[in-house]
Design goal:
Radius of gyration: 17 Å
CATH architecture: Roll
Oligomer: single chain
Largest sheet: 4 strands, antiparallel
Number of domains: 1
Strand content: 25-35%
Strand order of the largest sheet: 1-2-3-4
Number of helices: 4
Low-confidence stretches: 1-19
Number of strands: 4
Helix content: 40-55%
Length: about 140
Amino acid sequence: MKHLLILFIAIGTLTFTSCSTGAAEKVADEFHLKLDEGDTKYIVDNLADTESGVSVQEWEDFLNLVVSWGPQSNRAKVMGFSSKINNGVTTMKFSYTFEVEQFGLVHERLVLVDRGEGYKIMIAMMNSDESIVEQGTSQY
């Protein structure tokens, strides 16, 4: 019976984790879709978290810069994720790589936040130097 309880707890934990990441992954996928379409207004209006100190103008400037790099190809999610809960606020961090003609391989980290109303993208960092991206998102 003890083994059954441990198995139940393990399955419950995996189920909870996969359900909780699903909502965040959906937002990240939508972000990439809209970024590929060049629809930066949609991202700023619907997906970007402007409560964390990054202004609407800063989001627009960043997204327009990324779009100016040209098409992103071979986007791949790096396995794993990071999740934290602090004072009822959940953050999730996902890592990706993609290629652009101008820079070659680019490393990307998305930090998403859920303040109780669904996930929004709090930080999006992209750079050809992975250590810069990691350093910029390490606190999350």
